[in-house]
From TrEMBL:
GO cellular component terms listed in the entry, alphabetical order: membrane
PROSITE patterns per the UniProt record, alphabetical: PROKAR_LIPOPROTEIN
Keyword Lyase applies: no
Taxonomic source organism: Brassica napus (Rape)
Transmembrane segments: 404-428
Secretion signal span: 1-24
UniProt name for this protein: BnaA10g12690D protein
Keyword entries, A-Z: ATP-binding, Glycoprotein, Kinase, Membrane, Nucleotide-binding, Serine/threonine-protein kinase, Signal, Transferase, Transmembrane, Transmembrane helix
A single GO molecular function term of this UniProt record: protein serine/threonine kinase activity
Top-level taxonomy: Eukaryota, Viridiplantae, Streptophyta, Embryophyta, Tracheophyta
Primary location class: membrane
Length: 460
């Protein structure tokens, strides 16, 4: 009897140990495709299935599979699929948030010179790439989108008589809670409350003060780049690494928000033990103008010895976004707890730079110090649901020609009305002594004449 109980206990504890070990997020949808290849390939522990297995998802007739024999950074870049006409992929998915990752690495195959290919990629709801050309040796484009139906349809559309290509693709579920809530506007009152409708494109994802983190060290297969190339003055920071001390607390950030390898390293202001030092640490990022951006700051106080020692200011584009930021008060009196803060730029960017700074707090007697552990900058879709400006609209359509006709029609129309009005004025001036009723009658006539033009203008 006692032995049985003991055995049961061992069984229970081993099950809970197993649960502890595999508590990582398991995505409901996990499409990983190695285009152009008859073989599965394994990249950092994940299997990208062969194009042959994925071809049942394709609803087009173009059948060019390209292979190269060059040396490339990863096996998924050795092959590609070429689309010479409009091609659609249909993925059955569980409704919810997903990553869409498109991998490109151009090479020459027969008459196809992929670095000159020009094409668009869109879904039923958003445009991701418009008249896109791959300019670097390898590029991965990552998007976060909410699919509210049971399928995601991706359309590759060649521009003009060019062609499209792709080396590999990922459509993977993301926890719905990864980006939620209403982020504050950076440097202004109020908050953005339409985050759930947004599609986002990852522009920069950085691990401050530490090494590059690769998809195998991230439960959501993300890549976190190093930050030093973005620092305006590199000598103003020092690297700190204390990965084992990072803690996740319920209600705060989780392992899915960012891994310990991100929270456990930071760039710290290098005050050189001088309590009078006063400077800002600034990172500068290139972004595309005409879009709003979502900024997520990852903090974890791995530098303080005790509570309420670290106070600093946080700036975005020279605007104060948090004054006297005190992580130990947010984290309910604890140190080294993973914490995030989200912001959205107030309006579409007019300049092609985003500057992020940390600087000393003006609280009297506080030692000049500040930290940043991680940062994500994501482009938000514009009002036409595009993440890339151009003529392309969601669902694979182009801006309709009819609109051009309408605009021309309206412009010509308003010119005619100007001439008509001018004519009437001349007429009136010549007949100065005319009766008022006559004038009113003419005015009515004029209004009647102008009505269609006004309507056209309103429709444009
Ligand atoms: C490729 O991977 C898929 C999915 O993991 C599997 O079903 C299939 O058997 C694999 N094919 C080969 C040839 O290994
Ligand atoms: C900080 O770490 C990064 C990445 O490991 C490295 O490139 C950089 O030179 C380090 N900076 C300093 C000041 O040590
Ligand atoms: C990544 O994970 C491997 C083990 O999977 C570990 O040895 C390595 O230190 C990790 N790197 C980082 C930066 O966390
Ligand atoms: C830090 O940056 C902010 C915003 O640009 C600026 O107002 C402040 O004067 C800067 N502080 C120092 C010491 O340069
Ligand atoms: C992004 O697209 C959605 C429709 O998918 C739209 O509701 C939303 O307003 C767009 N965002 C912006 C900032 O215009």
């Amino acid at each position: 009897m006692g032995g049985e109980k003991f055995g049961f206990l061992i069984w229970v504890s081993s099950i809970s140990c197993l649960l502890c070990l595999c508590h990582g997020y398991v995505p409901a949808d996990n499409y990983l495709i190695n285009y152009g290849s008859p073989n599965n390939v394994t990249v950092t522990g994940r299997v990208f299935i062969s194009d042959t297995l994925a071809s049942n998802l394709l609803t087009s007739t173009s059948e060019t599979l390209a292979a190269s024999n060059r040396n490339s950074v990863s096996d998924i870049y050795q092959t590609a699929r070429i689309f010479t006409g409009i091609s659609k992929y249909r993925f059955s998915v569980a409704p919810g948030r997903h990553w869409l990752r498109l991998h490109f690495s151009p090479f020459h195959y027969q008459t196809f010179q992929m670095e000159s290919a020009k094409f668009s990629v869109s879904s039923q709801t958003h445009v991701f790439l418009s008249d896109f050309t791959v300019k670097s040796r390898v590029i991965m484009k990552e998007y976060y989108l909410n699919v509210d139906t049971d399928h995601l349809e991706l359309t590759f559309t060649p521009s003009g008589n060019s062609f499209a290509f792709v080396n590999a693709l990922e459509v993977v579920s993301v926890p719905d809670t990864l980006f939620n809530g209403d982020p504050s506007f950076a440097g202004s009152h109020g908050s953005f409350n339409e985050l759930s409708l947004q599609a986002l494109e990852t522009v920069h994802r950085l691990n401050m003060g530490g090494p590059r983190v690769t998809p195998d060290n991230d439960t959501l297969s993300r890549t976190w780049e190093t930050d030093s190339e973005f620092l305006v003055e590199k000598n103003l920071v020092k690297n700190v690494s204390k990965i084992p001390s990072v803690r996740y607390k319920p209600e705060f950030a989780t392992e899915e928000t960012a891994p310990k390898s991100v929270y456990g390293t930071c760039s710290e202001m290098n005050s050189g033990a001088n309590p009078a030092s006063n400077f800002n640490v600034t990172w500068e990022f290139e972004v595309e103008t005409g879009f709003k951006y979502f900024l997520r700051f990852h903090f974890c106080d791995i530098v303080s010895k005790s509570l309420n020692q670290l106070y600093f200011n946080l700036y975005v584009d020279s605007m104060m976004v948090v004054r006297d930021l005190d992580l130990s008060s947010y984290e309910i009196n604890a140190l080294a707890v993973a914490y995030v803060m989200d912001f959205v730029t107030v309006s579409e960017k007019k300049s092609d730079r985003i500057r992020v700074s940390i600087g000393r707090s003006s609280i009297h007697g506080v030692y000049p110090n500040g930290i940043l552990n991680g940062l994500e900058i994501m482009k938000m879709n514009n009002s036409k649901s595009q993440l890339s400006t151009g003529t392309f609209l969601p669902g694979g359509g182009l801006t309709k020609k009819k609109n051009v006709g309408l605009i021309i029609g309206a412009t010509v129309g308003s010119l005619i009305s100007l001439v008509v009005i001018g004519g009437f004025f001349i007429l009136f001036k010549k007949r100065r002594g005319g009766i008022i009723t006559q004038r009113l009658g003419l005015l009515c006539l004029l209004m009647e004449q102008l009505q269609p033009q006004v309507e056209l203008l309103l429709r444009v």
